[in-house]
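This section describes the prediction task in plain terms. A model, or a person checking by hand, is given the sequence of a single protein chain and must write out its three-dimensional structure as a string of C-alpha cells. No templates, partner chains or ligands are provided. The sample shown here is typical of the held-out split.
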Amino acid sequence: QVQLVESGGGLVQAGDSLRLSCAASGRTFSSYHMGWFRQAPGKERDFAAGIRWSGGQTYYADSVKGRFTISRDNAKNTVYLQMNSLKPEDTAVYYCAARSAAFSSFVSPRPSDYTYWGQGTQVTVSS
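The expected answer:
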C-alpha cells in the first residue's frame, strides 16, 4: 500500500503561482511513477503532469506545458507540482497518483493506470 496526501492548494488570482506537494508513505516511493491529475466540476479527471520513478523524465499536458513543473525528491518521499502563470481554467481539484514501475516503464496519462490516489487538494484561480 502507498498512502498519498496532497497539500498546497488554495485560492489565488490569475497570474499567481502555487506549489502543490504530495507526500507518500508506505512502500518504496522511488519504485513508483507519479502523476498529477486534475478534475474540474462536471468534467473528467485529466492528466496534468507525470514523472518517472527516477525523476529523469517528465511529461506534461499541452494545456500546462511551459507553466507547470513536476519534480520529485525520493529522499523525502514527495512529489511536487510548481504551477506558474495560473489561469482561471486551471481551477480544479488536483490529485497525485502512483503507478508501480514494476508494471511499466512508461508514465501513463490514463487515470485507470494508476493504483494509488490521494484525496485531492482544491486550486481555485480567480480572474
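For orientation: The chain has no helices and eleven strands.
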